[in-house]
Write a structure and sequence with these properties.
alpha+beta, elongated, Arc Repressor Mutant, subunit A, 43% helix, four-stranded mixed sheet
Length: 209
C-alpha cells in the first residue's frame, strides 16, 4: 500500500499519471480502499499504517497481566465479560482502538490463555451480598403470595382496635416487619456471561443492590 500511495502522489501531476482506478488495478488494491489513502482532501486521507483492525503488538507482559487480572477477578466473584477484558486491554495500551483490541482478545488472548481461562464465556450467577437474584416473573409471584397472605390475615382478623377504634385490616401495615428486607433483586439484563477461570465449576458475578 505504501509503495502504491507514494507512486500515485509522485506521478500525480505528470503526463504518466494514472487515474485512481487504474492505479489501484496496477497495484492490485481494491479501488475503494486505495481511494481512502489518496482522498482529494488531505484531512480525510487515511494515514499509512492506520487501517482499522490492523493488529498492534501487545507485549507478553501486558498479555500475561491481562490473563492474571481476568483469573483473579473470577476468583473474587467479579468475573469480566468479554467487553470488560477489551476495555482493560485499552487501558493497558491507550493507543489501541476498540476494533484492534477486540480482534486481539478474540484471537490472540484466547489462544495464549488456553488451559487457564475457559475459551467460551460461561454463565455466572448474579449475586450481591451473597444473595441470589430472581427474575421479574419470580418477583411477581412473590408479591402475589405476599398479597394473598395479607388478605388471609384481614379475613381472619375482623376485630376492632380498642385504642383507635379501627379495624385490623387498616392497621395491618404497621405490624408487618421485614417486608422490605426480602432481598429481591431485579434481573432485567438476563443471563450474564463472563470469561471464567479454567477448572472452576461454578461462577458468580457481583451486582449492585
Amino acid at each position: 500500500m505504501r509503495e502504491a500511495v507514494e507512486a500515485f502522489f509522485k506521478n500525480e501531476n505528470t503526463p504518466q499519471a494514472l487515474s485512481i482506478v487504474d492505479h489501484a488495478i496496477k497495484f492490485n488494491i481494491p479501488r475503494d480502499t486505495f481511494y481512502k489513502y489518496v482522498h482529494k482532501d488531505p484531512k480525510k486521507r487515511r494515514k499509512l499504517g492506520s487501517a482499522p483492525g490492523r493488529n498492534m503488538k501487545v507485549s507478553s507482559a501486558n498479555c500475561e497481566f491481562l490473563i492474571q487480572h481476568t483469573i483473579r477477578a473470577d476468583r473474587a466473584n467479579d468475573g469480566f465479560t468479554t467487553g470488560q477484558v477489551i476495555t482493560n486491554l485499552q487501558r493497558l495500551q491507550p493507543d489501541m482502538g476498540y476494533k484492534q483490541a477486540s480482534n486481539f482478545v478474540q484471537r490472540t488472548f484466547k489462544k495464549r490463555s488456553a488451559g487457564r481461562i475457559k475459551q467460551r464465556p460461561v454463565k455466572a450467577q448474579k449475586t450481591t451480598s451473597k444473595r441470589s437474584q430472581c427474575t421479574v416473573a419470580q418477583q411477581f409471584w412473590w408479591f402475589q403470595n405476599y398479597n394473598r397472605a395479607l388478605a388471609f390475615l384481614r379475613e381472619n382478623n375482623t376485630g376492632v382496635c380498642k385504642k383507635t377504634g379501627k379495624q385490623f385490616g387498616k392497621l395491618i401495615d404497621h405490624f408487618i416487619l421485614g417486608a422490605d428486607k426480602t432481598c429481591l433483586i431485579a434481573d432485567a439484563d438476563g443471563d450474564l456471561k463472563i470469561l471464567g477461570e479454567h477448572g472452576r465449576r461454578e461462577h458468580e458475578k457481583k451486582v449492585a443492590d
